Amino acid sequence: MEWTESLRNAIRYMEEHLLEDISAENVADQVHISSFYLQKGFKIMTGYSIGEYIRYRRLYLAALDVISDREKIIELAFKYGYETPESFTKAFSRFHGESPLQMRGDAGKIKTFLPLKISILIQGGNDMDYVVEKMKGFKVIGFEKEVLFDAGYQELPRFWEEYLKKYLKLISKSSEPENEEEQVICDCMVGEFGVCIDDIGAEGKFRYMIAGTYQGGNVPKNMTVYEFPDMEWAKFRCVGPMPGALQSVNTRVFKEWLPGNPDYEIALGANIEWYQGGDNSAADYESSIWIPVNRK
Q1: Is the model's pLDDT at 112 over the cut of 80?
Q2: H-only helix segments in the chain
Q3: Is the pTM value of this prediction over 0.90?
Q4: What per-residue confidence (pLDDT) applies to 46?
Q5: Domain assignment of residue 33, given as a range
């Protein structure tokens, strides 16, 4: 299914099932897209996570019910998916700036949140610096962390900070490896890749690896190996200081390249970020985004 139409169908499905117990994984299943890519693309395109969109739409509809004064607060709490009136009131007040009781009879206090409409402006997507390359299957090895989709922007920088704080001297070759784990880091260039994998089946989570190319041999107990099959990869070149350059290209991939590309679609719930190494604040620092693709 075409990317833009998939997003529209995702919104349509959420609107039709707003009062049901649905998750991002349910929505992704309906539009036949990896949950990882749907949530990532939806956030880039709309500014909201799927969880936020569902929650904000429910709270807007709840406000309409509040001012109609036909249902009790406890009834509204259960209707809109909250376990207690207290949790509903807290979420309602945070979103609208007024409690349900304060809002009764005063529609002017409602914070409006209407269904989103996806509109795409194709602007230079085909001029992006990328290649599509067929690669044989390969394995990566590294340190793994399960990450919440909605918390990725906070958790992943901390994960990298912890890794660099512990192994920077080793990576910069100012110290020698002292154990098997450190030897693997050096031999496999762990830190060359940041790998996102959507295969754990846990709602709202994906796996993230700080990784390098696996060279074979023993796998230290704190490390993980993941294998990619033979496939084609769209590789988007980024030049400039991190993280701005990479984030800019990432946004263009979802806003321009995917909607305007007649030849390729996402093939797997995973992606790779490649890092050159060295000073990532330099104006000529190179990185890239790898997305697995199928020809349509």
Answers
A1: yes
A2: 3-16, 24-31, 35-46, 50-68, 73-79, 85-96, 100-103, 152-171, 180-188, 244-252, 258-260
A3: no
A4: 87
A5: 3-109
